[in-house]
Each structure stands twice: as C-alpha cells, then as structure tokens.
Design goal:
Blueprint: E1 5-8, H1 12-23, E2 28-31, H2 36-41, E3 47-49, H3 50-58, H4 63-68, E4 70-72, E5 74-79, E6 82-87, H5 88-92, E7 96-98, H6 101-114, E8 119-120, E9 124-129, E10 137-141, E11 147-151, E12 154-157, E13 175-190, E14 200-202, E15 209-213, E16 219-226, H7 236-247, E17 261-275, E18 278-279, E19 282-284, E20 290-291, H8 299-320, H9 324-351, H10 357-372, H11 374-385
Parallel strand pairs: 1-2, 1-12, 2-8, 5-14, 12-19
Antiparallel strand pairs: 3-7, 4-7, 5-6, 9-10, 10-11, 13-16, 13-17, 14-15, 15-16, 17-20, 18-19
Helix pairs in contact: 1-6, 1-8, 8-9, 10-11
The protein binds flavin-adenine dinucleotide (FAD).
Flavin-adenine dinucleotide is lined by residues 8-14, 31-34, 39, 44-45, 101, 123, 126, 158-160, 162-164, 267, 286-287, 294, 297, 299-300, 303.
Length: 391
C-alpha cells in the first residue's frame, strides 16, 4: 500500500491526526495493535481544556461535546475542615469541559468511518523502516495474518507509551527524562450521580482523593494508594469509606453518596519526556513522546495539542515539500509539553501525602496561598484550563 502518512496508533492522537490531515487533503492509513472494541472501552481521561474544545469544534468534532459534555467554571480544592472554590472563568476567562475519553474516542471512530478512512485494527508486529530517507515505510501483520507494507512520505508515531515509535529513534540521538512517584491511584467508575457540581481535589493526611465525574449519572473517583496495590484488596465498602473520610463527608453538611462500582483499576504515576519528538520522517505525538501523572488532567490535552501542531506541519511537508513547520515541530511542541509536565508534577506533589511531616506543612501552606491569593489562583487556573496551543 501507499499513502501520504502512516499513523501508528488509533488512540485520540492517531485518529485526530488522521482527521485533521484529511481536512487538508492529506491521505493517511492508521494501524492499531488492539481491536476496535478494546480501544473504544478503555476508561481513561475525562477533562478537556478550552483550547482542546475549540480545536475539536473547529474540526467538526464538537457535536458530542455540545450534547453530552458539561462545562465547568472551576474546581474545588480542599483539606480537612476547609473547601475552596477556584472560579477559572472569573480568574482567567477560560473553562474546562467534562467529556470522557471514551466519548471522544467514539466521536473520532464515527468520523473516521463516515469518511471511509482506512484503519487496520488488530495489527501486530508494526516496524518502522528507512526513517532517515524521504520514503519511509511501515510493515505489520494484519488481523488475518497477512504481512503488509505501507510506503509513505512520513510516519506519525501516535502509539502511546509502549509502542515501537519511541524506540525507533536512534539511541545516541534521543534524550529521556523520567520521574516515578512513590504512589498510585485507585480509580473507580460508579453508577451514581456525582455528589458535587465540579471536581473536588482533596488533600488529606491519609492520602489524596479526587471526586470527578463522567456524566450526570456516572461518577469517577480516585484514591491515592501505595505502589503495588491490588485493586482486588479494595472491596466496595472500603473504597467508599476511605473516599468519605478523605473527601470530608459530613463537613459543612456535604455528603458523599455511594453507588454501584462498575470498574476499578490501579494507575501508577509517572512523568516522562523523550526529546526530540521527531527524527527524519518520524514524528511522535501524545503519550508516545511524554507521560504526565493525571493530577493535572493534561495527558489527553497534550495529545490533542501535539497533533494540532503536527497536522499543518505534515501537510506542508507532504503537499509542498516544505519542511519549515516539520523542522520546528519538536521544539514548539516540547515548550508546551514541559509546561504541562511542570504543572502536573506541581499539582501531584502539592496534593499527595508523602509521609514526611515537613512536606505536609509546605503543601498546606501552598494550598492556602493558591486559594487565598488571586495571583496564586490565577496561575493554577491558567495552567489547568490550558495555555494556547503553540504556547
Ligand atoms: C490506564 C490509563 C489511565 C489514564 N487515566 C487518565 C486520567 O484519569 N486522566 C487523564 O488526564 N489522563 C489519563 N490518562 C492519560 C491519557 O489517557 C493519555 O494521555 C491519552 O490516551 C494519550 O493519547 P494517545 O493517543 O497519545 O495515546 P493512547 O491513548 O495510549 O493511544 C495509543 C494507541 O497506540 C496503540 N499501539 C500501541 N502499540 C502499538 C503498536 N505496536 N502498533 C499499533 N498500535 C499500537 C495503542 O493500542 C493505543 O490505542 C490515562 C492513561 C492510561 C494509560
């Protein structure tokens, strides 16, 4: 097969990139290691920054967000006996939207199918070749066991943290940074209306808790747990009791309503960046190039911001052989990536119990400043709602 751009990975980065390229008249073929059903069912992120929503709307992908998304003006930050609301819209004139990654994935699959764009699901053994030439190609085995080769003008590595694209960059020419945190999140989905109108981020001496949501009838909640935690060791009652304690059930009359838990999983917390994000005709986007701990709600938004930069860069490269934007892609994307890396690290270390009493006092001091000072609050709000794409 022959196409303009081979996209490896049909997650949000890969499918959105194919969509944006098509709008520019650029052909692509997407290959995905998992089945369509598996990719559609993955429960992951749920907050879209205002710039992400603007981009999705401009790309004709806003209908689902309008119909089912929920715009939030801010978040609550709390610690025992105190809860404070940060009003992002008042602080920086921007909001965020609650819209599950599963919903966005469904929108992207629907758009891809409506346009008849080729996606090879269940593809194994993807390998990248001749990336230093201007005729790279990708080989893989399709779902029926047939060997396939796709020749292209560029390869987009949108294959997440465990795909082959990241490692296809030559060893001496890439640099990586990593921070592994000494705690994980136990996340649940529950069939119960949220007990809050906006997200609650709770500092607690026993550990962090987050009350998020996916819709008016589905709640998403998280607990800080030690690394190596087995979700099976957390029966429903233990989860709800721990959430009630950390989220302040009973505080100023606020109540946490429990409900049937439909999904539970443990998510390790990690920061990771690989630089540069391009090599020859290979371009990395999304989790293929970077990981953030989810406290700042940045992973999905960074993937969207990367492909918003990459699509015009690849269009110029493929259509006009103009490499200006493609050459600038890595440097431009990494500026925003490192800002999000810092914000995600900052939110994580401000809110999670480390076991060190000195850390705890610093965290409380930071939380008081962020909630009491307009300058502190505006800084958090500006980063949480997302800096402009290309920042
Ligand atoms: C378990 C988990 C929970 C998360 N929870 C949250 C959260 O609560 N809040 C938050 O903000 N963010 C969360 N994130 C982060 C967010 O979901 C990601 O940042 C986002 O999915 C990035 O999109 P992506 O398209 O770059 O990567 P992905 O969504 O990872 O997509 C990459 C795709 O590439 C495919 N692939 C991999 N290897 C190959 C191969 N060899 N060949 C072909 N295809 C391949 C994968 O199957 C996958 O479909 C979570 C991430 C994970 C992994």
């Amino acid at each position: 097969m022959r196409t303009d751009v081979v996209v490896i990975g049909a997650g949000p980065a890969g499918l959105l990139l194919a969509h944006l390229l098509a709008a520019e008249g650029i052909e692509s073929i997407v290959i995905e290691a998992r089945t369509k059903q598996y990719v559609a069912a993955r429960i992951r992120a749920g907050i879209l920054e205002s710039a992400s929503v603007d981009l999705l709307r401009a790309a004709g992908l806003g209908a689902g967000i309008e119909a089912e998304g929920e715009e939030h003006r801010g978040i609550y930050l709390q610690w025992p006996h105190e809860r404070h609301h940060l009003d992002f819209t008042a602080l920086v004139g921007r909001s965020v939207w609650v819209y599950g990654q599963t919903q966005l994935q469904a929108d992207l699959v629907a758009a891809s199918e409506a346009a008849g764009r080729p996606v090879f699901y269940d593809a194994s053994g993807a390998a990248l070749h001749d990336l230093d030439s201007d005729r790279p190609y990708v080989t893989f085995t399709d779902a029926d066991g047939n060997g396939q080769r796709i020749d292209a003008l560029a390869v987009a590595g949108c294959d997440g943290a465990f795909g082959p694209s990241r490692a296809a960059m030559p060893d001496g020419q890439r640099e990586t940074w990593e921070r592994v945190y000494p705690y994980s999140w136990l996340g649940i989905l529950a069939d119960v209306p949220p007990s809050t109108d906006e997200l609650i981020y709770a500092w607690h001496p026993d550990g962090f808790a987050l009350h998020s949501m996916r819709s008016a009838t589905v709640s998403r909640l998280y607990l800080q747990v030690p690394n190596g935690t087995n979700a099976a060791d957390w029966p429903d009652d233990r989860i709800w009791d721990t959430l009630a304690t950390r989220l302040g059930h009973g505080q100023d009359g606020w109540r946490l309503t429990p409900g049937p838990i439909t999904e539970r999983s443990v998510l390790p917390m990690r920061s990771f960046v690989q630089s540069p994000m391009s090599h020859g005709r290979l371009f990395l986007a999304g989790d293929a190039a970077h990981t953030v701990p989810p406290t700042g709600a940045k992973g999905l938004n960074l993937a969207i911001a990367d492909v918003a930069l990459l699509a015009p860069a690849l269009s110029d490269l493929v259509r006009d052989n103009d490499a200006k934007l493609a050459d600038a892609y890595s440097g431009t994307a990494l500026r925003r990536v490192w800002r999000a890396e810092h914000f995600s690290w900052w939110m994580t270390t401000m809110l999670h119990a480390s076991g060190d009493p000195f850390d705890a006092q610093l965290q409380l001091s930071q939380l008081r400043w962020v909630t009491a000072s307009a300058a502190g609050a505006a800084g958090l709000a500006e980063n949480y709602t997302g800096l402009p794409i290309g920042f």
